[in-house]
Amino acid sequence: VEFERLDGILERFGPAGVTDLEQAFGRVGAVTDDTQMTLFTAEGLVRMHLRAVSRGVGPTVSVIAHAYARWLYTQGEQPPAVPGNTIDGWLVDVPELRHRRAPGNTCLQALRAGREGSIEEPLNDSKGCGGVMRVAPVGLYPSLPRQAVFGLGCEVAALTHGHPTGYLAAGALAEIIACIARDGLSLDSALDRAERCLFEWPPGGSAETIQAIEAARELARPGNGIAASPAAVESLGGGWVAEEALAIALYCALVARDFRSGVLLAANHSGDSDSTASICGGLLGARDGLASIPPQWIDHLDVVAAIRRVCDDWEYISNNEELVVSEDWVAEGWALAYPPA
What we know:
Elements: H1 6-13, E1 23-24, E2 27-28, H2 33-55, H3 62-74, H4 105-111, H5 136-140, H6 149-158, H7 164-181, H8 187-199, H9 207-220, H10 230-234, H11 242-255, H12 259-267, H13 273-288, H14 295-299, H15 304-319, H16 328-331, H17 334-337
Antiparallel strand pairs: 1-2
Helix pairs in contact: 2-3, 2-15, 6-7, 7-8, 7-13, 8-9, 9-11, 11-12, 11-13, 12-13
């Protein structure tokens, strides 16, 4: 229902709006560009880890930039020359990923630019939500030094989105995910931590993101007399820009009874439904685990096999680092699956 207004959603699906997976892009269970790019973020992080283990080189955002170049290739485009990058590995050959699912123009234009965007040398002044919607894996990655999560989340988003809010909202999401999944904190305590990271940013740069987080927390505050509803969601904005997408996802996660209710609330509004629901799902998944997701929602996904593989490979490699420097690395096909970055 991305690009549809709420009144049209209710007319099409009934008074409760969307309540289950619906047909989009010609099938039920088609993921959008959000999940496609999140998968390539995760694959890039795996390669980043392998680079650290095999070469002793610390985290570098260029590895993620190369992953996004591979995503651009799956969209039917030839990425501009990026030093050290080739179109390789298993993920780029997954046929289900070779579909355009309404990718954001800012992401496309930035990845066509021929150089990496950065905080210091931005490619544009965009604060669209295309940076924040794809960074959840940064917060989950166990081999990334804990103190580096917020910064890497910002750097990953700044590859395509140059406005401070565009990348600070992403850094905040990565920090929140890490606080929940790695530190075992509640969502509310995770927000406190994320706000501290934002307050430490140069004066003024993080104001929009902090205000958006505070707006979501206030709207979700128990006893304020505001019922969870699409009207409440839309009071936070449309989600087309980074801080609004983060605020909507946070609000829906804070008031959610469970994974299903939170994601549906985040999808049934007039704005960027797929991105807000995707971010909310990442938050609730980190908090409540895989068992919280309705099985039928998982089984119908067109890229479910790819999601399972990147997660399984991520876990196996993290727990068997000695494999990377052994003869088995090549013999068992791992070197072709995840070539050196």
